[in-house]
Amino acid sequence: MRIGVFDSGLGGLTVLKTLIKMYPCNEYIYYGDTKNLPYGEKAKEKLFELSLNIIKFFETKKVDLIIIACGTISSCCFKELKSITNIPIYDIITPTINYLNKLNYQNIAIFATKRTIDTHIFKKNLHQKQVLEIKTSEFVPMIENKNLNLNIIKNYCLKIIDYDILVLGCTHYPIIEKEIKSYLNNKTSIINMANCLVNSLNLTNNNSLKVNLYFSKLDDNLLENINSILDIPYNIIENDNQ
Length: 242
Ligand code: DGL
Known about the structure:
The protein is of the alpha/beta class. The protein has helices at residues 12-22, 44-60, 71-84, 93-100, 114-119, 121-125, 139-144, 150-158, 177-182, 193-200, 220-229, and strands at 2-7, 27-32, 65-68, 89-90, 108-112, 131-135, 165-168, 189-192, 210-215, 235-238. The longest helix is centred in the first third of the chain and has 17 residues, at 44-60.
């Protein structure tokens, strides 16, 4: 299968990595819209316009399915995107909510971008009453620029110190999972949405692995970041599809 995966930047690579682990014999086309990142504070109309261009790009690449490896686009634009393409398209939040609704726990916290939290998609769809949604928009620029402010991370973690579950509601956040974990109680389980997504899919494995990464803007920092996430051979192409 040829699978299109996209995000604003690096974050979706955490999803790509999980997909490749589970479904290694496929062709993957990744699009990271680094020229327009961060997505997390943009207006819904702008997010739709940007993601529509990416869907059109995937249509020219003749992908068999599309994965929205971005919490922000999943929460704001999934329904609209689904209605404008014939290619099967999957978001990352629905499988996460389905998975969480099968668990038993007392309370749950969500770290996500401003735009995702503003939709209250988790609060509206989780059966559990004690849902604390926290906007952590500073995380994405810190991660993309490799400039972590541990105090900011710590202060957010202190707000949820006794929680049973923390959902990393933005696909960039698994990149700083180690730092987040260091400020939490051992009792807090951390949920990476990529795992919920891959376990909900049933893909065939019928090709040899091929990975093409497209970014709307490339620089040395990005290349270094990619290599710290992906440990497989890939081709990389700068493509400003807008
Ligand atoms: N990784 C994305 C998400 O899951 C986008 C974050 C951003 O660009 O602000 O929400």
